[in-house]
Amino acid sequence: MNYQAFRTRFAPFACVSTDQVEAAFPGFNRDNYAEWIRHGYLLRLRRGWYAFAEAADVPGVGDYFAGRIYSPSYLSLEYVMARCGLVPESVVQITSATSLKTASFRNASGEFVYRSVKPELMFGYDAETVGGGLPVLVASPAKALCDFLYLNPQYSSREELEGLRLDEDVLAGLFADGSLERTAARFRSHALSARIALLKELVSP
């Protein structure tokens, strides 16, 4: 088939899986992917996933790709902590939580890191859109922080938590609205609850 027919069918989605293509066009010649990459029409995101080259310039499209190429997943951990101002440093990796196994992928749109959590911990995220309507699932600040602490048990003492340099105003807001403690309670983890209690001491007057 020609590229224009392919683009007309899939370009509104910014990226497409080989399974989607095969479902829409049975018998599709997979050699087309390599040819269209050579012509600069497509970018390879990971095995079985391709993006349209023009989509790479869409603001926030990396966030969208993160949820598409490894699903189910939602943006969380350091990436969301930086977005909401909890940590002072910008984060290069796009980090997500997933109920699948831990994985990472690197492509022209960035580095995508996925940390595995139990299926019952896949909560605490909201839907946003980027690029005029592309859907993105993003953890709340409280869920991003809880995911991070739950998956990084080395941050268990007051000194180690202080070393994270969490923004005290943002953190105090999460305690003030109750979201952090409510979210942590749903993990049913004594270790996580203990770390949240230590954080509360750090921001208490």
What are the salient characteristics of this protein?
about 200 residues, alpha+beta, 4-stranded mixed sheet
Give an overview in words.
- The protein is of the alpha+beta class and 205 residues long.
- The chain has ten helices and nine strands.
- The protein has helices at 3-10, 18-24, 31-38, 61-69, 77-83, 141-151, 158-162, 168-176, 179-185, 190-203, and strands spanning 15-17, 42-46, 49-52, 73-75, 94-98, 103-107, 110-116, 125-130, 134-139.
- A four-stranded mixed beta sheet has the order 4-5-7-6, sandwiched between helices. A three-stranded antiparallel beta sheet has the order 1-3-2. Strands 8-9 form a two-stranded antiparallel ribbon.
- A hairpin with a 2-residue loop joins strand 6 and strand 7 (110-116).
- It is elongated, with a radius of gyration of 20 Å.
- 35% of the residues are buried.
Q: Briefly note the structural class of the backbone.
A: alpha+beta
- How far apart, in Å, are the first and last alpha carbons? 67 Å
Percent range for β-strand residues: 15-25%
Topology as a string of helices (H) and strands (E): HEHHEEHEHEEEEEHHHHH
Q: How many alpha or pi helices?
A: 10
Biggest sheet descriptor: 4 strands, mixed
Give unreliable regions as ranges.
none
Give the strand tally.
9
Helix residue percentage: 40-55%
Using only C-alpha atoms, the radius of gyration works out to 20 Å
Q: Give me the oligomer status.
A: single chain
**How are the strands of the biggest sheet laid out side by side?**
4-5-7-6
